[in-house]
Amino acid sequence: MSRLRLTGISKSFGAIQALSDVSLEVAPGEVLGLMGDNGAGKSTLVKIVAGNFRPTHGSISIDGDTVDFHKPRDAQRQGIEVVYQDLALCDNLSAASNVFLGREPRRRVAGFRFLDYSTMHRRSAELFAILKSETRPRDLVRRMSGGQRQAVAIARTLLSNAKIVLMDEPTAAISVRQVSEVLDLIHRLSDQGISVVLISHRMPDVFAVCSHIAVLRRGELVASKLAKDSSPEEVTGLITGAIETA
Amino acid sequence: MTTLEQAIDFSQHRSPVSRILGSQIFWVFAAAVLACLALTLLTDSFATQRNLFNVTRNFAFVGLIAIGMTTVIASGGIDLSVGSTVVLAAMVISVLMSTGYPFWISAVAALAAAAAVGWLNGLLIAYVGMPPFVVTLGMLSAARSLAMVLSNNKMIWEFGPDHDLLLWVGGGSTLGLPHPIYVLVFLAALMSVVYRWTRWGQYVFAIGGNEQAATLTGIPVKRIKVSIYVFSALTAGVAGILMAGWLGSVTTNLGQAMELTVIAAAVIGGANLAGGQGTALGAVIGALLIEVIRNSLILLGISTFWQGMFIGCFIIIAVAFDRIRNLSSSD
Ligand SMILES: Nc1ncnc2c1ncn2[C@@H]1O[C@H](COP(=O)(O)OP(=O)(O)OP(=O)(O)O)[C@@H](O)[C@H]1O
Ligand SMILES: [Mg+2]
């Protein structure tokens, strides 16, 4: 049974048809590379699965159950975690606050529930260690390097026991060494049976970790196949439209 | 933690002393204290009990609303309607009391009127997506007009059976401190805790820092925004009730142009108009500095026409200070 199944997903923003009739399946532990030109609709698809947008048409099912997300929290409860394209961080808050943003642990003191900073700091330090990132939980995101910011965004996805992790260009702003850390992490997630959808414009990264590849062109799914049956040349052709479908 | 990590930690986190010296609140507070010392030496009228009583009470009103304003500004918004909310709340309580209603019922009604103003502001800003500046500018006009309609633009100075209670609440003192000061200290302490230790506080700053990120991560941004404008309006409502009691009479020009003083206090106290920054203590100290300036001009016999010049300079200096600090910490 597929972990995530999208059936006939369409999304329009006024006159713009961002996605039309996209159907896609991701198995447990599968790493799917989602590719496409700028504006192809990749981020829109991610936001639909993450509960940020509702699709105009179509349905989503997880482990065979149809779900209908009205807000990001609904998707989080179903085990969906996201690294957003622009990372979605608050510069004025600390790394730990950003990791826990929207689901801060609290401790009851005298009947009131206060933020549990010690847990937040401890847990995020652990996550940064897992990511082999030199990010300190108390530092403000404003003062961080691109790689540290990326670590904060990725650490968020490790907070809960995710079933599906969506990564929208997680390697866009980081060094070669850190890219390989992220790719390692994706392997480890996959080994634990977590499905990963990786969006990236970097062909080598995609072919290094993905078992499946899907290509979007102007909101339409033009290919969805095993990575070993495809090639960077074919995918490039599919993205640009030189190859119609595959 | 290993010693190496500790060493890194130490070099990264500035010592308490340099942190205090780098804080805007400290310098604003120092300026206020300095002005007070100078006035004590230069005049015999400053350090009198009567004058200090007046200063503390006057700044309490601005300080109260500046805490609400700081919350709005920290979330990346602005509330221009607070001055009008002050007069609306003051008018609701005085009209009701003068027609014989008891203090408590009238006060609750006044706060409800203020909350309604904030709620409408918040609704239009969060759900309709209108810019805060425009919405609250419209409300500035509308709320004051409503106060005029309510009172028929007449002055009210008789507050019915609970007349003395109202005057005591707003104008009285306990243990030598005027009552508005108690309210201010309570609110400042409360909000300092709320900002840092609650989800609501965290979300206010998250929205001000990156509203889109807050939305994407599932923070109920719209509901929080409405609550922020309601809170701001409530601080204005409380100030309106206290001012009615302090003045002993309410006219429709109460709180006129107060929004500017309040915004000035918040900004001088370190609230960043770009959003994401501000403290309750800063709001209070910003308000204190403004009141001390105002008072000193009067006592030194300088024309109060200069007041705007001084406050204006302080706003610009405060913002310049912030720029310089950011420059020096980003190298
Ligand atoms: N909130 C929105 N409102 C209106 N139009 C939108 C919105 N979000 C996306 N779009 C439009 O939908 C289309 C697809 O955008 P999307 O961000 O999904 O592309 P993408 O494949 O992620 O591109 P990139 O590689 O540049 O990130 C674009 O035409 C974009 O302008
Ligand atoms: Mg995108």
TrEMBL record, chain A:
Every ABC transporter domain range: 4-243
UniProt signal peptide: none
GO molecular function, one term: ATP hydrolysis activity
PROSITE patterns: ABC_TRANSPORTER_1 (PS00211), ABC_TRANSPORTER_2 (PS50893)
One Pfam family from the record: ABC_tran
Keywords recorded for this protein, A-Z: ATP-binding, Nucleotide-binding
Family per similarity comment: Belongs to the ABC transporter superfamily.
Protein name (database record): Putative sugar uptake ABC transporter ATP-binding protein
TrEMBL record, chain B:
Keywords assigned: Cell inner membrane, Cell membrane, Membrane, Transmembrane, Transmembrane helix, Transport
The organism's place on the tree of life at top rank: Bacteria
Keyword Membrane assigned: yes
Database matches in InterPro entries: ABC_transp_permease (IPR001851)
GO molecular function, one term: transmembrane transporter activity
Entry annotated with the keyword Cell inner membrane: yes
Membrane-traversing stretches: 25-43, 55-74, 165-194, 226-248, 260-290, 297-321
One Pfam family here: BPD_transp_2
Membrane topology annotation: Multi-pass membrane protein
Stored PANTHER family: ABC TRANSPORTER PERMEASE PROTEIN YPHD-RELATED, ABC TRANSPORTER PERMEASE PROTEIN YPHD-RELATED-RELATED
Any GO CC annotation of this UniProt entry: plasma membrane
Protein name, entry field: Probable sugar ABC transporter, permease protein
Compartmental location: Cell membrane
